[in-house]
Amino acid sequence: MQRAGRRSMVLSIFRINLRSRSRVRSSSANSSSCVARSAGSEKLLARGVPDDAVVLVHDAARPCLSPQDLNLLLAASDSCADSGVILATPVRDTMKRARPEQSPAQIERTESREYLWHALTPQLARLSVLHQALSKGLADNAQITDEASALEYIGLQPRLLEGQASNIKITRPADLELAEFFLRQRLNEEEG
């Protein structure tokens, strides 16, 4: 934990092994997602992290977070911690909504991408606010897919900060090759 005057922030450092390709699996863990997220905020509070601390929640499945994006998010922490702030990228592709329960999938309609963003991580909020949002979502059995959706659930409107598209989430084996490309590219830039 870092402390700077009255402001405290929780940062977690992790390492990922990109060579373990066999561990990448597709999963739909929405039902247990809110339970795990709520347990995480409870552990922070139990360990004495101040409830006014700013926390960053980052998917370990996103190893390509750039230092620039992290700094952008941290710079927004003073003005956005009470409502939340996330990294995101504007949707660039044409988005199609499939008809429910159709096999094979069929297009129901084309969605306007004008105001659509891809949510990334880290996602930032004050611990007390995030804990309240996750606890409420859990109690109501709400579908909470990320920290921002929990904040939305209690009526907040987290801010969107445009991050880099290279901050991909590894969910399929092919994503590993793309992540390796981005990480090697960054390493080459730092060395060269």
Index terms:
192 residues, Spore Coat Polysaccharide Biosynthesis Protein SpsA, Chain A, 6 helices, globular, disordered N terminus, IspD/TarI_cytidylyltransf_bact, nucleotidyltransferase
What topology, given as strand order, has the largest sheet?
A: 1-2-3-7-4-8
Low-confidence stretches: 1-31
As for the CATH topology, it is Spore Coat Polysaccharide Biosynthesis Protein SpsA, Chain A
Biggest β-sheet: count, sense, barrel? 6 strands, mixed
The first-to-last residue Cα distance is 33 Å
Radius of gyration: 18 Å
| CATH class category | Alpha Beta
**Helix/strand/pairing category:** alpha/beta
Overall geometry comes to globular
- What name goes with the CATH superfamily? Spore Coat Polysaccharide Biosynthesis Protein SpsA, Chain A
- CATH architectural label: Alpha-Beta Complex
